[in-house]
Amino acid sequence: MLACWATGSELVEAGQPLAPGKIYESNRRALEPLLVRSGAVARVYPLVPDTLDATCRALKQALDECDAVVTSGGVSVGNWTL
Questions:
Q1: Which residues contact 25 (CB under 8 A, 6 or more apart)?
Q2: Do residues 73 and 9 make contact, with C-beta atoms less than 8 angstroms apart?
Q3: 40-78 burial string, b = 16+ CB within 10 Å, else e?
Q4: What is the pTM of this model?
Q5: Tens digit of each residue's pLDDT (9 = 90 or more) over 51-72
Q6: SS3 labels along 22-39
Q7: 8 Å CB contact between 30 and 3
Q8: Radius of gyration for the chain, computed over Cα atoms and rounded to the nearest angstrom
Q9: How many CA atoms lie within 13 A of 27 on its CB side?
Q10: Strands (E), the chain
Q11: How do the pLDDT tens digits run along the chain, 82 residues long?
Q12: Angle value at C-alpha 25, between 20 and 28, nearest 5 degrees
């Protein structure tokens, strides 16, 4: 199974109200059928906020439950130290 999740505190699920400064997340839902078409069993996870703790928890859960992880997102500001 392949985990698919997106990071970004600015992201909102499609169909939810869109507040100022927020954008709809579409990458996971676009990647899912491509992964399935390539033969993968894809599992879409909830959005992950831009914090180190949330990212580590989401990654641990996905790796505990799946064979591989596809993520969408990035860090645009700040330093991350492990």
A1: 6, 8, 11, 12, 13, 14, 47
A2: no
A3: bebbebebbebeeeebeebbeebeeebeebbbbbeeeee
A4: 0.81
A5: 889 999 999 999 999 999 999 8
A6: CEECCHHHHHHHHHHHCC
A7: no
A8: 13
A9: 15
A10: 2-6, 11-12, 23-24, 42-44, 68-72
A11: 999 999 999 999 999 999 999 999 999 989 999 999 999 999 999 999 988 899 999 999 999 999 999 998 865 555 555 5
A12: 170
Token pair belonging to 69 = 């992880």
Give the C-alpha separation, 54 to 22, whole Å: 19
First and final C-alpha spacing in the chain: 28
Structure tokens at 30: 């676009």
Residue type for position 45: Y
